[in-house]
């Protein structure tokens, strides 16, 4: 089985400046133009070598980048990377050395050669994604056989940061191309469902909690970077600590460099999950505040960072302890690094940047650098430790192991029978020895966990030295993995005793102490005060209640006056006001139309006086909803319920009178019927007056006995005072509503009985619909009013008034206005009585 056939080709990349465009023309019988791939922009590898199988390498050769202007008006320039990193450059050279050793080995891949393509990720996920896409293409983009063959890429070595590895792994996953990381330790990458092609030669972060358990630190602070590595490392740490049931953790907001609280925190042991580049500004602020006495527990990402070995760091970082990547031995690395110089690679910009970083001079006169020129033949010395530190390689050793892991996996694949598996499966079972260390991968893609325990101690020159004081061996039985020589450790403050971190920090104002059952008095939790309670002293034993009209502030440190709420002219109040005024204006407009056409048949036949009475009452109904908006007062509370009850009673009384007139008019046409003499103008006015008078009497008794009045409701929401109108007498309130409902039901029944009386314009039908809508609105109002909270009850009542008023207006008068304005030919007595000549 040929592994090359397993890796499909990436045809087009259109997200970044590096793009390939497939150009074609319309196919005709006379002309057939083949597809052509055109290189739009270039992203060439830093180092490249041909071979039977190609390995990709992605390294953060720069630690900063400038994004181009992507305004879609012109072709964007390439991403510019700044800040050359000699340490990462050493990792890339280690990969080259390992490939050359394998190609020269007579035992490992004897009949095949490995090539490589090394790209710069600029320590940024977006550029790492671009590198991953570029590495999928051919050996050189300019002459890449993109449209005619498959990619020769075997595997990828990378990336350094977990955030970059997540992006690159997801890009490589659809192509089933394995990726081996040399420095990404995030526990999130162990998820084989999300990252089935990801492997690494560095253990994940879950094992580092063993240090805290070993020294019985029961209260620690946490510092993390704001990225996947930091977030998942802290989550894994908390999960492991909670499982021990003995170790507690504290997160005292250390992530904000400008707001360090380490000075006042009781956690004297601080665990840090961050890269050395992120630690630099953090430590700068930390040192400015002159905070000492902190015992740092470093993650593998910065425990061996040589950038912190200067004399100025020892008073603050001395005694730091942590898990370090296992160091190894690469015999030929030092000599190989010295072969890299501008004379041998005159056209390689990275080599020129290396010389500028190490010597402060430019070996090329054509580079445009502002630095003084030099020959480029200077000797690399030990003081150039950023590049030449090969005495105890750690990350570089991981790169070395990763390359050999790929070579051994490919070698084992050639020994398999056809159809026995692919290189991803071979990776899971590969086992080999390098420098006396056994290298293999578990089912999660991780290698055997092995760490050196590193302690930062003062050297002879006053600088910091990394002293090996123990090890963690994942091959040992559970409980025996961690071996530490405690007598060799120098703790923070140049102390030989293991530091002690107190159990509980002080409780600040706004909280109280809650003693933990079964634990010492000094171990307590800080419980925030409940709503309505405060504490204004440190380490308060209890919280005190606020006075009745006051409430606790957000921090629970002081009592502030409660917020007063009522239906005011906010968005809801303004909406109700606009609807109310609009309804009144529409009613007046209808009044004007009827008055102007008062001598027409449709106005006269339907009793114009009762129609004007109804329109007058509806105008008052619309306007009375305005009384519910605004701060409740004694007068407004009395006026609210009485105004709407009297106006609606007047309106429905008029409709009742109109209904009786309709019934009487059609009944009077029968022989011997003389009922119309009992429903004359005076009798109609008497019906309206008497029906309205009953409501007036009820309202008068209500106002005399127990009138509505303003009240302060603090029961619904204790943090607010809701100003509302108390109904005074609930019996009177429901009597008022019940009387209106009785009138509406009586009017509905009479109109329903008259709905089939003859005539082209039978007003009883419209009265029936209007009463049906009226009753539906107020039946829905009752449960809504009872359940509505605070000032929303007033809004519900106001909405019910407006909805029922609009229902009456449109059902009773819209059909008449339609005939009056748009169908004047039907506004005749003959048409209305159904006696038109056909």
UniProtKB/TrEMBL annotation:
SUPFAM superfamilies: Periplasmic binding protein-like I (SSF53822). It is a multi-pass membrane protein. It comes from the Eukaryota. It holds the Pfam family NCD3G. Keywords: Cell membrane, G-protein coupled receptor, Glycoprotein, Membrane, Receptor, Signal, Transducer, Transmembrane, Transmembrane helix. The chain crosses the membrane at residues 572-596, 608-630, 642-666, 687-704, 731-754, 766-786, 798-821. It is found in: Cell membrane. One of its GO terms (cellular component) is plasma membrane. The keyword Protein biosynthesis does not apply. Residues 572-836 form the G-protein coupled receptors family 3 profile domain. One of its GO terms (molecular function) is G protein-coupled receptor activity. Its main location: membrane. Belongs to the G-protein coupled receptor 3 family. This is Extracellular calcium-sensing receptor-like.
């Amino acid at each position: 089985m040929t592994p090359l056939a397993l890796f499909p080709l990436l045809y087009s990349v259109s997200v970044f400046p590096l793009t390939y465009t497939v150009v074609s023309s319309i196919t005709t019988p006379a002309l057939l133009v083949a597809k052509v791939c055109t290189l739009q922009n270039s992203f060439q590898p830093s180092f490249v070598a041909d071979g039977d199988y190609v390995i990709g390498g992605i390294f953060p050769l720069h630690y900063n980048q400038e994004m181009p202007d992507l305004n879609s008006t012109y072709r964007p320039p390439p991403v510019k990377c700044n800040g050359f990193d000699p340490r990462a450059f050493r990792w890339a050279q280690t990969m080259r050395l390992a490939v050359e050793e394998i190609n020269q080995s007579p035992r490992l891949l004897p009949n095949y050669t490995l090539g490589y393509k090394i790209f710069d990720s600029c320590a940024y996920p977006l550029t790492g994604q671009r590198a991953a896409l570029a590495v999928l293409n051919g050996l050189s983009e300019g002459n890449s056989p993109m449209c005619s063959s498959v990619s020769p890429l075997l595997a990828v070595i990378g990336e350094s940061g977990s955030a970059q590895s997540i992006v690159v792994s997801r890009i490589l996953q659809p192509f089933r191309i394995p990726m081996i990381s040399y420095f990404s330790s995030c526990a999130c990458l162990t998820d084989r469902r999300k990252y089935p092609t990801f492997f690494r030669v560095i253990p994940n972060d879950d094992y580092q909690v063993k240090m805290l358990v070993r020294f019985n630190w029961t209260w620690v602070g946490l510092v993390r970077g704001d990225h996947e590595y930091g977030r998942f490392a802290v989550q894994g740490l908390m999960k492991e600590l909670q499982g021990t049931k003995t170790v507690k953790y504290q997160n005292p907001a250390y992530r904000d460099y400008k707001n360090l609280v380490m000075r006042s925190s009781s956690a004297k042991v601080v665990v840090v999950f961050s890269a050395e580049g992120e630690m630099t500004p953090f430590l700068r602020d930390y040192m400015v505040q002159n905070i000492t006495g902190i015992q740092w527990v470093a993650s593998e990402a910065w425990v061996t960072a040589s950038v912190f070995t200067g004399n100025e760091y020892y008073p603050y970082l001395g005694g730091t302890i942590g898990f370090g990547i296992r160091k190894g031995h690469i015999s030929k690395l030092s000599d190989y690094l010295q072969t890299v110089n501008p004379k041998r690679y005159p056209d390689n910009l990275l080599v020129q940047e290396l010389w500028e970083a190490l010597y402060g001079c430019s070996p090329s006169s054509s580079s445009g650098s502002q630095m003084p020129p030099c020959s480029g033949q200077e000797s690399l010395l030990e003081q150039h430790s950023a590049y030449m530190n090969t005495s105890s390689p750690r990350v570089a050793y991981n790169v070395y192991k990763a390359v050999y892991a790929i070579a051994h996996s490919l070698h084992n694949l050639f020994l398999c029978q056809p159809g026995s598996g692919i290189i991803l499966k071979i990776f899971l079972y590969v086992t080999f020895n390098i420098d006396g260390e056994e290298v293999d991968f578990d089912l999660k893609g991780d290698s055997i966990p092995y760490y050196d325990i590193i302690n930062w101690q003062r050297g002879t020159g006053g600088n910091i030295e990394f002293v090996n004081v123990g090890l963690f061996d994942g091959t040992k039985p559970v409980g025996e993995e961690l071996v530490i020589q405690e007598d060799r450790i120098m703790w923070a403050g140049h102390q030989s005793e293991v530091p002690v971190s107190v159990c509980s920090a002080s409780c600040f104002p706004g909280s109280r102490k809650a003693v933990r059952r079964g634990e010492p008095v000094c171990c307590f939790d800080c419980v925030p005060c409940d709503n309505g309670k405060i504490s204004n002293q440190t380490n308060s034993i209890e919280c005190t209640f606020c006075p009745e009209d006051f409430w606790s502030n957000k921090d629970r440190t002081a009592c502030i006056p409660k917020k007063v709420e009522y239906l005011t002219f906010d968005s809801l109040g303004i909406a109700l006001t606009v609807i109310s005024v609009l309804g009144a204006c529409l009613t007046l407009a209808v009044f004007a139309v009827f008055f102007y056409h008062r001598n027409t048949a449709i106005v006269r036949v339907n009793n114009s006086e009762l129609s004007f009475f109804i329109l007058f009452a509806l105008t008052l109904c619309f306007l009375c909803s305005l009384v519910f908006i605004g701060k409740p007062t004694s007068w407004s509370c009395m006026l609210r319920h009485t105004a709407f009850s009297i106006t609606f009673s007047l309106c429905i009384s008029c409709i009742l009178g109109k209904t009786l007139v309709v019934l009487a008019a059609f009944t009077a046409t029968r022989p011997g019927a003389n009922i119309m003499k009992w429903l004359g103008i005076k009798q109609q006015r008497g019906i309206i007056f008497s029906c309205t008078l009953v409501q007036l009497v009820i309202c008068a008794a209500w106002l005399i006995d127990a009138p509505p009045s303003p009240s302060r409701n603090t029961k619904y929401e204790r943090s607010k005072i809701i100003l509302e109108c108390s109904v005074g007498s609930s019996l009177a309130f429901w009597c008022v509503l019940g009387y209106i409902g009785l009138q509406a039901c009586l009017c509905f029944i009479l109109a329903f009985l008259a709905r089939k009386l003859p005539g082209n314009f039978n007003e009883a039908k419209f009265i029936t619909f209007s009463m049906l809508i009226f009753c539906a609105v107020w039946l829905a109002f009752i449960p809504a009013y009872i359940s509505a909270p605070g000032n929303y009850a007033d809004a519900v009542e106001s909405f019910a008034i407006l909805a029922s008023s609009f229902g009456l207006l449109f059902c009773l008068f819209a059909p008449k206005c339609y005939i009056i304005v748009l169908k004047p030919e039907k506004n005749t007595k003959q048409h209305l009585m159904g006696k038109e000549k056909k």
